[in-house]
Design brief:
alpha+beta, about 350 residues, ten-stranded antiparallel beta sheet
Length: about 350
Amino acid sequence: MPELRKDPITGRWVIISTDRAKRPTDFVRESVQIKGKGFCPFCYGNEAKTPPEILAYGRNGGPRDSSGWTVRVVPNKFPALGIEGDLDREGEGLFDRMNGVGAHEVIVETPDHQSTLATMSEKALEEVLWAYRDRILDLKNDKRFRYILIFKNHGEAAGASLEHTHSQLIALPIVPKRVREEVDSGKHYYQEKERCIFCDIIRQEVESEVRVITENTQFIALAPYAPRFPFEIWLLPKQHGSAFENNPSPVFTSLARVLKDCLMRLDAVLDHPAYNYMLHTSPIGEESNEHFHWHIEIMPKLTKVAGFEWGTGFYICPTPPEESARFLREAQVGVEKT
């Protein structure tokens, strides 16, 4: 019989449609294949074809906007929001508006066109995480911004317009509703119980083990109890931390290891699926708190959001998270746990 499950953080309900239960091979999808044909502005030698870089690692003193980098950050050529100008908030009767001020950047994760985060070395992936941190810390100095979202679209089905592996960053003058729901729900839970709800979830999942996918000394990857999508993964630090950018160096090393592990498992079980991931961290000005726990959410593109989901806010997930976790946990990927 199908189940209705409630997300303990946001209160969102999902339907676990056990009558439609699907194994990894049952999903109709196209595997992400790196073809490498044609011109790519993110490859070595084409640095002049992007806007001037904001940040680059690995060049060791070479000229700006030249080859030799290992990670490179540039403004998005077609930004969703513009960096210049004032917000000019105003109302028009019941309606509120402001200028579309923000930052939109691209983190080019490697000069190797054929690489993905799953195939890169742990050290190279760690550099990508450092770029996330450095850009967040820099943009937080802009008083116009209230939230900085890091996200990745991997594969055309996930919204990637270029196949060369890259992430994106958007700095916003408001806190997104999805993030605010998580933060406020966590705060309400903490006020009632004086505990972080994310920490409580981790403790319960470690005890039950059924939705644990992989872990190391500092991180755990879970199939959430009420997933929106099949094979959804949440990656959380075991020790409470409210802001991604405030972590010490060893945390990024450990995060790179477990993130690579998760992505390799997805590739092995789902045959290199398209996916999205996003980093949820505390809003600017709320970085140090006991109620919110930063985390990464990874969502393979295996199903489509349709009329029922748009009309109700419910999601239908055809694979129970306990089954997703088992398939991913049993995948042979050869990553050491330390």
